[in-house]
Queue: 2 jobs
Job 1
Amino acid sequence: MQRIGVFVCHCGTNIAATVDVKAVAEALGHEPGVVVSQDYQYMCSESGQNLVKNAIKEHNLTGVVICSCSPRMHENTFRKAAAAAGLNPYLVEIANIREQCSWIHKDIATATEKAVILGRAAVAKVHLNAPLIAGESPVAKRALVIGGGIAGIQTALDIAEAGFDVDIVEKNPTIGGKMAQIDKTFPTLDCAACILTPKMVEASQNEKIHIHSFSEVTDVKGFVGNFTVTIKKKARFVDETKCTGCGLCTEKCPMKKVPNEFNMGLDNRTAIYIPFAQAVPKVATIDPNYCMMLKNGKCGVCSKVCSVGAIDYKQEDRFIEEKYGAIVVATGFNPIKLDKYDEFAYNQSPDVVTSLELERLMNAAGPNGGTLLRPSDKTHPHKIVFVQCVGSRCDDSKGKPYCSKICCMYTAKHAMLIREKYPDTEVYVFYIDVRTPGKNFDEFYRRAVEQYNVHYIKGMVGKVTPQSNGKLHVQASDLLANEQLHIDADMVVLAAAIEPDKTARPLATMLTTQMDTNDFFTEAHPKLRPVESATAGIFLSGACQGPKDIPETVAQASAAAAKAIGLLCKNSITCNPCVAHSDELMCNGCSSCEKVCPYGAITYIDKEFRMPDRTTKVRRVASVNPAVCQGCGACTVACPSGAMDLNGFSNSQIMAEVDAICK
Amino acid sequence: MLRISIDKIDSLFAAISEKQALYIPADRADGAAEYKKYEAGMKLSEKLNTVRSAKDFFFPQTENLVEFKMEGKKIEVKDIRQESEDFVIFGVRACDARSFTILDKVYLVEPVDSFYKNRRDHGTVVTMACTRPSETCFCQAFGIDPTAPEGDCAVWSDGSYYYFKANTEKGQAFVDSVSSLLEDGDTAELDKTVAKTKEIMGRLPLAKLSTENFGGDKLNEYFNSDKWGELSESCLGCGTCTFVCPTCQCYDIKDFKTSDGIRRFRCWDSCMYSDFTKMAHGNPRLTQLERFRQRFMHKLVYFPANNNGEFGCVGCGRCLSKCPISMNIVKVMKALEVK
Amino acid sequence: MQVNENKEFEPLIVAFCCNWCSYAGADLSGTNRLNYPTNVKIIRVPCSCRVNPMFILRAFQRGADGVILCGCHPGDCHYTSGNYFTRRRMTLLFSMLDFLGIERDRTRVEWVSAAEGAKFAATMNEFTEAVKKLGPNRRLEDLRCRKQ
Amino acid sequence: MNKNLKEQVLRSSGVNVLKCMRCGKCSGTCPSYDEMEYHPHQFVYMVEKGDIETLMNSKSIYKCLTCFACVDRCPRNVEPAKVVEAVRLAAVRKQGNNHMTPADLPDMLDEDLPQQAIVTAFRKYIK
Amino acid sequence: MQETMINRAKQLLADGTVTRVIGWKRGEFAYDITPAVFESAEELESDFVFDDFTSANVSKYLVKESAKEGKVLVFLKPCDTYSLNQLTKEHRVNRDNIYVIGIPGGPKLDIEKIKAKGITGILSVRNENYTLKIETIYGEETMPFSEAILDKCASCKSKKHVTYDELIGEDGDVLDSNRFDMVEKLENMTAQERYDFWREQLSKCIRCNACRNVCPACTCEKCVFDNPNSGVENKAASDSFEENMFHIIRAFHVAGRCTDCGECSRVCPQNIPLHLLNRKFIKDINELYGAYQAGEDTTSKAPLTNYTFDDCEASIVHERGVE
């Protein structure tokens, strides 16, 4: 038999002025199961709580109903009080008779009647409350960072700084990411390599950081605090532990016509290569698509010249498995492919380039050693047209619907750098809007216009036509002058939209994190939890969550690190006990619940059941991981058999409330 | 014999329904027949039978038994039994008429079911002889003569007249109450109709179905028969057969929480349902095979064992035409029979 | 609720509110002393997606005259996607009730954020009025539960 | 502003002019730009403002080649050429403003002009 | 056709591909055909039947049968293959343990429609050039084949087999069916008319659960209506509310999962057009969330376990209907 105590709070006059609290206590005292019903001035006060605690002990209560302010206010207070008196904290229910009764009603009679009904619903519910015990699960003290660009490096450094081991998985032979390809950074114009490479070195030298370059995540199992991740270390045919990065092999390799991806294919590299001088790890990699030794067994030059014997043509992909407490996704972005934009002649003329290609063309370590020359004839361009928003803000299948955010600023940077270095070059920028929200951003853009005399034209380029004289005919509109412009340019630079890296989507599936329709990872809350994914223990760093410039990326990377550190600091995680659970006897294993679970908390197991005729039958049934479940209840409604229920808000509890209210 | 011309039947119905509630089989929009409370203009259905049997009048699908009023912590028990009104069911076929005899053996023996008795006492059963039996009919197997139905009063039709004959006191009272509308007449035409019907009965596909190898003493022959597995294999476990059956009598008692108390009611149960006779300790029939067997063993063996050889089936054929997968007592008897 | 000859019909409204947005929004309308009728009784659920169609039918069975479901605005769900499922489920359920001839104004879904105390109160006022106009729920009530 | 006309143009073109983000790519791409008094991007904007009559009275609408370059290249799928065609249609449909009467026909007969064209024009431009 | 099927089944039994065959077994009369499992050539030879009355969708039996040892052969009509796919998708059957032979679909006959014509004492039914010759104890009767076909066949949605291991006969196409006509008609009525329509229909319900138990989407280990802890359990409707609730919840539970096989209406002893409730959901789903056919494949996301950011609001129900 239930022994329920009801405690009605006056909240000074906040409740008592419009609700006859004595009458409420009296009425609820007559409810079945209620053994004590009292009212008090301030139930949340020390003495009010003592009243509750004493009643629990004195009457040996099995449930407590507090009629007071919103549970969002003091539910925890009273749960703690109950726990202190030896009653399971989840046997406490709150009837909200302040915010949802006394404060909104004026008539004492009706407000009192409603307060009684709300109290009765809480009593009905508490009859069915079960004691819940919050579970705990241990936390593996190691973090995984997926992606070794500036976001991943920053996150790893911050986590390592806090004293935790952290692994970086980078799919390319070196960390550094897109930032390593960039020449200068806005709005300060400092050299990207000069600020990035020290961080790369720092990461490689930090004892706590373990870099798995040329590697990929192939499987993720487990949940917050307890992920098991399989990492594929792709064969690079060079023993990382032996290679000193001397580069002799790359000099001697006879296969020299491999498009150099680091330079956006604007020049060539050898089949065995180190992507760039400051690569980390500085280890050679053999490209099996071009290496003649790997393709037909004829060559072996690199092996012969290598003084430490690091070359290993027989190397195979290796898989390692590691446990992590937290995972940070930092998979970054890529410019979109421009094949569909015929009007800009990107595929027709080498002198039409993307902005990232321009970065390489202008970089001292780039194909032209830092001198800006037209890719076609290596002459100096005198007229350059920049086209903004190529593929951004598009409502069609060719492009992306969002603003890529970084293009306005880097285009101003490019224009300025060109005008600075080559004052004889005329620069036109065709824009739809110039977006410069950011510290010193607008000033930077104004400098390009005012100080460097870059021609900013509001309007879009309609067409670029390569001419026989090597010029590019640019046809565009100048909306403010209301005229069509025709410019014969030497080069055209396209600000291609950026998109999440292609590896992100399969990764999201493995991580059971959500993505938006553009394949950007979805944050747990767009305002308040911007660096966490909705899946506990998975954090988001950098452009994988949305377009970002370097300062924003670094800020988010550190924020994600802070969140990960917060998790790793704990020895164990206390789980919310109000989680879903499945009645295996009733579960059909139909997977409906799994499909609506935003957290991937539901898995299926084959379980053996004893059948009525004493045979056994193996059936697929759902199993909820209480450490991952957040208790939303979506699964309970998706389940047709009602096998899935939610602790603390069970079907029977909610229906008891409905019944009590409708009585 | 007392009779009334078919075209005057409306006046007879009107006269009956003036004194007490009258129920007749009438056609619904979907073509099926069901018992409806007579209202002026309603036509007697020409269908052989209704989808639901006539047992509903004495043993309705749900019936309130008792109420508990609750106020705070006080509980008050309320007896809600009321004396039933008098009523007449007209046009009950011989099979359904026999079903009341079977139900009586369950509900009117000690302890008497007061709810059933109340209705039985107040209801007059007016039966109607069959003229156009269907291929699914097998009442003959249970010794029922559809041309001479039981019931308080039997009615025959020869196409021009309805003929009346009281079988019981209640039936006689009924005939007396409408005697002003009846006239005496010869039965020559009727005798021909009856003879014709009897001839058709002999030609029915199930005319040869016999119960001689079934009965109360056949428990050992059939309980462990290996046929049950095969027969029950396709059973969906729905309750169609039991709910259209005029003799199925099992019920479950349930409580319903109303706004101010509990209403205890009973409702039909089906031995085909997985929680049939489920008790605190568990369920004695855990598989569909056992539940399926229960239904047929009950009708063909257990019931006769306890009721002087009377079978728990009247051969109305409803389960034959309504079972979703066409598994029925005839197929069971034929498959099971050990000669 | 009963109809009394000399008393205006007072409908019973059951409001399911998600803990994170709408329940907080209801609290806010209390904090700001924004009145809405006592007819509305709130049941707290973790997320609007916890509301099973059975709960809604249950409320009608037991004597509710209107049922309203409040959750976070689409895109703001505390559990990221719960209210998207709610939206589909309730659209279909309400459409089915409509198909069965149940008055459509007896059911509603409204997105109320934790900041929209005023919207919560306005919604409840409006909904109560709409249900009042319909009169007592007769098409989806259980006579056994009707108050004497 | 003539609301009905705007409605008519929007309906017959099926274009949502509110999608335009004023990038001017249509005008940047238009081969007839210089022939026009009002250019494609202005077209879209004028329809949005409801200033249809000005357009109907402008020769610009007949300068559009309907090459669909603007439709193809518009990043927002606004389809300016369809708006142009819709305004032309609106002009055609305008009662009392029909460009031909049966009496005009004999003068128009020209041996270089295919008869088909005359019949088509006649059908199109007469009440 | 029947001969071909029996021969193929015998072959597959003989070569050990399968150990059992699910098909239909002839009954007492022309029409009372029972789904059955056959284990030998002899059984097939004597009892297997495939004709105008073999309308039962046998896919649901695979839940039980595919869990047993040995592969089972099943003959599926096009509509039945949708059911099997849906069961496969929901992990209710072991598809690897099933050998599906696709067979041509209906139209199949509805004995109720023949009997509704007043024809009784039926001894045999022959289809001669789409005229039914019905031999009865009261003499021979005839009626057009088209007037006796099952409702579910009259609004057939597809002649295409969506899953099979082999086919007997040609595969057909997805059809442009008129299956939503009646739903639309009801939608265009006033709320009062719809209410009256459904009251008349649902008040006939005797809660025999035939609709639920025959439904290939209703394979719950324990149905909420049988589970005393669910809060909605009941055995018989004591009030019209319970009649409504049962059918609303049942339709809701199969929404987005119902393949529209039409078995529910076929087996209803009270002729309640239950399929209209399911079709209403199908129609709504198609209109609001894009065309979706449950059972068409085994991978696509079901409409109720899926969403888009710009789904319509529930208020669309208020906006579109007539009053």
Note: Chain A has a mean pLDDT of 93.
Job 2
Amino acid sequence: MGTTAETLLAHLPIAIIVIPLAGAVACFVLPRAARALMAVLGIAGTVASGWLAADVLEHGARGYVVGGWAPPLGIALHADGLAAALVALTAVLMTVCGSLARPRRSGDAFFTSWLFAWAALAVVFLSDDAFNVYVGLELLGIASVALVASPGTRPALHAALRYLAAGLTGSLLYLLGAALLYASEGTLSFAGLEDAGGAPAAAALAFMTVGLLLKCAVFPLHGWLPGAHGCAPAPASAVLSGVVVKSGIYLIWRLWSDTLFGVPADAAANLLGALGVGALLWGAAMAWRAERLKIVIAYSTVSQLGYLVMAVPLLRTAGVEALAGVMLLAAAHAFAKAGCFLAAGAVLARRRSDRLETLAGLVSQMPIAAFALGVGTVSLVGLPPSGGFAGKWLLIQASFAVHAWWWAAVFIAGSLLSAAVLIRALAPAFEAAPADCASRAERAGASEWTALAIALGALALGPLAGPWTSLVTEGSIP
Amino acid sequence: MTSAGFVIYATAGVALIGAGAFGLARARDALRRIVAINVAALGVLTTMVALAARGGGEADPVTHAMVLTGLVVSASATALALALVRRMAHLRGEEDADGHDG
Amino acid sequence: MGIDAAALLLDVTLAATVVALGWRCVITADRFETVAVFIGISLVMAIAWTRLEAPDLALAEAALGAGLNGALLLAAWAETRGIEDGPAERRIAGPALLAATTMAVAGAGLAPLVGAEAGLAAEIAARLDQTGVSYPVTAVLVDFRALDTLLELCVLLAALAATWQLGAARPLLRGKLYGPVFVAYVRIALPLLVVLAAALLWRGATSPGGAFQAGATLAAAGVLLLLVNPAGRVPALSWAYRICASLGVLAFLGLGTGVTAVTGRFLDWPLSHAGALVLVAETAATVAIATTLALLVVGGRPVAQRGRVGKRH
Amino acid sequence: MTGLEAMLPLWIVLTSLLCGVVIFFLPEERAGLRTAINLFGATFKLLLVLVMLAGVEDGQRYAFEVPVVAGLVFALRADALSMLFLTLSAVLWLLTTVYAVGYLEHSQGRSRFFGFFSLCVSATAGVSMAGNLFTLLLFYEVLTLVTFPLVVHRGTPESVAAGRIYLAYTLGGGAAVLLATAWLHALLGPVDFFERGLPALRTLPEPVLIGAFWLLIAGFGVKAALIPLHGWLPRSMVAPAPVSALLHAVAVVKAGAFAIARVIYDLYGIEFAEFLGVLKPLAVIAGMTIVYGSARALSQSELKPRLAWSTVSQVSYIALGIATFGPVASVGGIAHLVHQGLMKITLFFCVGNLAERLGIHRVDQLAGCGRRMPWTMGAFTLAALGMIGVPPFAGFVSKWYLATGALAVGEAWVIGVILASTILNAMYFLPLLHAAWFLEPPEPSTPESAEAPAMLLGPPLVTAALALAAGLFAATSLSPLSWAEAITAEEYGP
């Protein structure tokens, strides 16, 4: 038994990419079995990701050379703590939300795109090769656009087109950066870029960062996100906001936090931090004016992404503790946001509208959905005992540790701001139902219960922060 | 391939990237935006091909492979974008028609 | 000296044409001109790339960039002719500044690279014998960086899945092209294209060519086939489309995992059968690329057109 | 200490937590089961608290700790000060549950109400037993979260608006506490509560300490309704009577005062706080709140807002007692924590009964209701006299200790404050009593005696009796006063 487990374990990184890929093709070729395939491969993928995370937690980072050629000739996968954690998070969200997806038309194409998005995320997190990541980002872009366009209505198509245009431009900038990097350093693998420096590397970093900022909708390049995440079906927007948008930020962390680029990047890192603050404020301001619940939640993604970008200067100075904090924030945000979107989707499905003024009586009619939204808000705002709080706590500690106390003030002001925004949106839900419609609590559907479960997952991340942070800081960025 | 050739084609590539950026920033119409992105893509690919051939000897195959993959990837993304444009035009056409008699 | 001067002159004119066309394409107010000029740029660029010692890229650019992209752009232009999305934008300052900064940063990045030597050509040439193919670019595509190719085929398939989700396919140009001249042309061009594709595929192992170029050419043949029926109707969806479109990914996945048992690494072709395996993978990729690109031109899910055609003229 | 006993504090928090969760998912129509679970939970928790009380009485220390994130420890600890607040909230939770079951007989959303009601009490228990600043912050914020749905329970636009104001104030306070906690944690590592203050704290530079102190006071002052952070209290009177009774008279408001006591006694230490010179300004603020609260209460025409402003003023007695650097005054302050709880909850119960039975909301409608609801008005009178400070009621005891304590340390102005406030109390309570007992009821339309049913009448009578007993038997060992003396003895040392 030992050897087969050993060999299986050795092939885990590539297996995590191949399983969803095989699933996607299978869904495309056998349309009628799409849902069953999705379920089976979802579980297989989650098991593999969980196993990888456990293995990395125990034995540290695990590499894998694809095709037998080591870098710089071939492509290598590198599953360190950070990547394994994100892959596990992706697997959980993709499986849970996938089981909820009810595409009205062309289910096969929907699940094909769903699994392609999952595989692409695995590539982006695990691959150690800049160009391989480019193709992964592109596959992720196209699959996500397909998910956004799946409702088939005009606003959905318009949002999908805008998302695709932004994604294409972002990938192009990233490609140019990668080419410059390869030309100046002679290798495409991230690991080999330790001592990259000079004008070409700086230009490459600039292009790649702007491209990634565009792909993950960081202010001021966030225009496409609210429409896309607002129109997509609830399970899709849950995954888009929860994980897909974070893949770009993961790459930014990897590029900016390594000892990469001897280029004097501290000034630019603070610029990124300022962008993050801008995202926080702008996202909150726009969410304050939004009229639909899903749009408020989408704009809160723009503002929460500000936190993750704001952490870049901290990652460079405070290192491991900041990484643990920001990853905890990212995971808690993923679960809470997924919970909120699924609940909002259930509200939209049952009450035909998620406009804020029609939310009256939600607490009495759909208590489970309201409770999921409430718990999600608790984690998004970062109130104890949620994971959001633990993440914010670690970030504040990190900023105090490097005497950058203004970052601590920004984090706390940010959480108050998002509290104001989300409470303004959800307050009408507590009002009594208008006289005409029944105020009896109807039976909660599966999506409401799943929304509540995922939102409680974000809450549970608080007490369970220990294992997650030790996994994340396992053998990753020094 | 002399380094003079590299300079010429690299500047052409950079100029195309600039044109693409200019077009993209100005474009209001979806079709124009897609064409602008493709112009910029051509610029990037040309710069890469020029980079591959900048050394005296044989051109670098890894960059060529990257360009080929980049070409196919941006072609399929453009195909999807154009399909979206055509579908929206079709829906808008249907809406106008239904709008009157609907 | 004469030849160098002439070569230099050729390069300069080609570069100048491309840049002029590029800016023209972006500045013009007429939408048809934008599309037409873009196709022009792609063709001139194909020629320029031959000058940069990249013949196979030139082939791919001609087939994909000028051919398929051009066809798609023209189709999209035709169908959005009446609809004007918004007033033609007149602002210049913002876009010009953006273009200038992009060019400046790119220029700054490229300048120090003028003299430097070019990447990994030597290492790859030294190891070609371990890959079963002798043409370096194909070796990189199929052996050194096989995962890239696999993912790229997935990108194509994802784009097709996304298009199929948008709804039923609509007749292509409503058969306006159909006529004796066109049929005669197709009767000649079709076999030629198929033979060319086969040749490109076969030569890929030893000289410029390979799956992508062959696939693109075959796709062109497919589009011609779709256009040649009277009402431009697209034959109904059957499992054949699905199998052909995903053949490439299936081949790479199947062979890749199968090979893992032998060599212990995913997509690591064993030297003894490398040539044969590569050929199988390349052929499958060609069929997949051809089907996918042709169906992408259709732009929708080809469902059986039972009485629906009459509804919209 | 055996395993079970170490877990006792955790069990106390979990009892009402589990009850809350179970009730939350109970279908609406299962009223009987819900009341049964509620009462069982309340009594079981009271038993656990009494067991622990006995344990702490004879010197046993209960502690439960579990590390959470890097460097953060979730710690529950039972000492004399926490037992005082814990016993008060356990006893009053049982009574208020009985009252609420009767009060909300026919209303909607009772499962949701009682679910959050129990969660709120477990948060209060958590605040009282917090072993370090982080756990205190944790339960302090959880208390905000679970009380918001109670404040907005009625679902009227006014109550939702009041709820949002409540959240704005309390989340703002929470942010201040978070900043201070993170700041101290960054400099010191774990910030635990120690008998007579954390020694490690004294190594920090003074400006940091003073800054952190005022951040903590501002944060906790929101719930303790110190000026200018008291705005939310009068507005959240739109909540149903049981909510106003337990939360705004006991749980929420006292949590703030208790947290201030905890910071001053067990984080900074009373001597070190005096050395830093931060006690004097706090005492001044408390004094101003007392007078301002009583003055505003005078001008309220509605019963509940009047009681709300009275609460604003009364809670600051506790802060004043703690901030006056003298053992006797702090005994008065700590004892008032219990006395004010007992008296104020009785008043809110009676006002609830009046509104429920006779639809009386305004002060001028009280004419002759003493005759029509004798028992309720009897309890109301007892509590009102107690609030004014008429001997032998509990109120008099705490005011007496406050005054003599302040005099002992030369803070004469405190007596002025207490006198002024007593006069104002009399001015806004006596007219109510006068109208109730000595005026004719407007028109004898309702039957002669419209007394409240047993479930609504029982609780106020019990609390009125407890208030009276706390005053009469102050000298005995079991009274809140002697318990306060024990706490002060620990804090002030030999």
Note: Residues 307-313 of chain C have pLDDT under 50 and may be disordered.
